[in-house]
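Saturday, quiet lab. Running sequence design on the structure tokens for the scaffold JK sent over.
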């Protein structure tokens, strides 16, 4: 690992099928950095579906380009059958148990989830060589990997991390960093969409999707020592041009279950990241106004952190509507019953549409959006230090 380059962390957010967008960004980076680079991100953090992408990068950190190409091959050929059971018995069994529990108040056999994601467990076990994570750390291709989960009993946001010997655990209000040997259960727990996929038992409690209660999504990268942070989001974070959410016309009637679920999904996956990035901008702006002697004071725990965000230039739910036919008939019927296949339910659909054409379009969009920032991105990653130094000076002057 090149000690002269800044320690850069990458944060891959959650978002179900939307995480295909991240693969396009990662592929663009592979085309922008020198071909012989092992891994441009010493610190890799992932949550939910972003955790799957994070672990795939970490397990093959010795060769970044190879890791991205392997990841891309999976996402470009995804089908719903590889993520959850789509056969009629599989769909009916889980959904009927879920509805029965709702009617009986949870009496009897506890439901696991609306969908059975055992196919995803098999796929991840086949495709990811988890021992490669520690091998990459030992070879100094990777400094630390962090996967965030939500504890259903403790109510804590738990960041399981695997890293170099000098990485220390941390504890803050409702969030902790715990050393662990990252494995399949951590990955499935982090990506267990609430109600949709089953929780996973780790240590002493059940864990679900890491985006729940993750009030500071960037913080794991900072605790692990990142000096710069690249955030690859799946919503239009901090984009001034992004239209505000349209208010529903009263004549449209009561929102469908899918609209309510989509709203909840956006709250879980998008809102906390936006708030955290705004907080980081505010801290950087405040620190830029302080005199140098104040910044050198050891009692000042705050530090300037450069960050860059790459997020979709188009609304992903609109893209999802073009690919509804990729859902198997059984699942389309299930989602259609709650309004997910209608225009207002497209947000929920965009999180669950693991279809080949949908994922490929998101990959292409991610690649395009990253390439549109190619000059900034190369400088940010430290492959054009003089240019980046000038950019940062200009940014501080503007602040």
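Result came back. Writing it out in full:
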């Amino acid at each position: 690992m090149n000690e002269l380059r800044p320690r850069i962390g990458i944060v891959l957010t959650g978002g179900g099928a939307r995480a295909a967008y991240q693969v396009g960004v990662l592929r663009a980076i592979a085309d922008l950095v020198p071909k012989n680079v092992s891994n441009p991100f010493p610190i890799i953090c992932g949550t939910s579906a972003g955790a799957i992408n994070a672990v795939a990068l970490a397990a093959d950190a010795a060769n970044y380009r190879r890791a991205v190409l392997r990841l891309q091959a999976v996402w470009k050929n995804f089908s719903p059958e590889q993520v959850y059971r789509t056969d009629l018995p599989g769909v009916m069994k889980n959904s009927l148990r879920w509805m029965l529990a709702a009617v009986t108040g949870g009496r009897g056999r506890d439901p696991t989830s609306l969908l059975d994601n055992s196919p995803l467990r098999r796929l991840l076990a086949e495709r990811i060589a988890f021992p490669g994570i520690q091998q990459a750390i030992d070879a100094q291709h990777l400094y630390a990997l962090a996967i965030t989960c939500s504890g259903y009993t403790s109510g804590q946001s738990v960041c399981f991390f695997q890293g170099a010997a000098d990485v220390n655990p941390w504890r803050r209000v409702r969030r902790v960093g715990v050393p662990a040997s990252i494995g399949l259960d951590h990955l499935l727990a982090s990506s267990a969409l609430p109600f949709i996929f089953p929780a996973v038992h780790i240590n002493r409690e059940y864990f679900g999707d890491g985006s729940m209660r993750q009030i500071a999504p960037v913080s794991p990268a900072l605790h692990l020592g990142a000096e710069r942070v690249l955030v690859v989001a799946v919503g239009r974070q901090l984009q001034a041009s992004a239209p505000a959410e349209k208010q529903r016309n009263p004549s449209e009637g009561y929102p469908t279950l899918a609209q309510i679920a989509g709203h909840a999904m956006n709250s879980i996956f998008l809102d906390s990241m936006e708030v955290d990035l705004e907080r980081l901008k505010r801290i950087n702006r405040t620190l830029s106004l302080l005199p140098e002697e104040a910044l050198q004071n050891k009692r000042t725990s705050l530090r300037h952190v450069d960050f860059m965000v790459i997020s979709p230039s188009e609304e992903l739910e609109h893209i999802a509507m073009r690919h509804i036919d990729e859902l198997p008939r059984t699942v389309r019927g299930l989602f259609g019953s709650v309004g997910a296949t209608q225009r207002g339910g497209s947000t929920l659909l965009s999180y669950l549409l693991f279809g080949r054409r949908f994922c490929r379009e998101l990959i292409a969009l991610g690649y395009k959006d990253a390439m549109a920032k190619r000059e900034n991105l190369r400088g940010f990653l430290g492959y054009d230090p003089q240019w980046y130094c000038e950019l940062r000076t200009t940014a501080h002057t503007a602040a």
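Notes for JK: Residues 327 and 353 are 7 Å apart (CA to CA). The first helix runs from residue 20 to 32. Ask whether to fix the surface positions before the next round.
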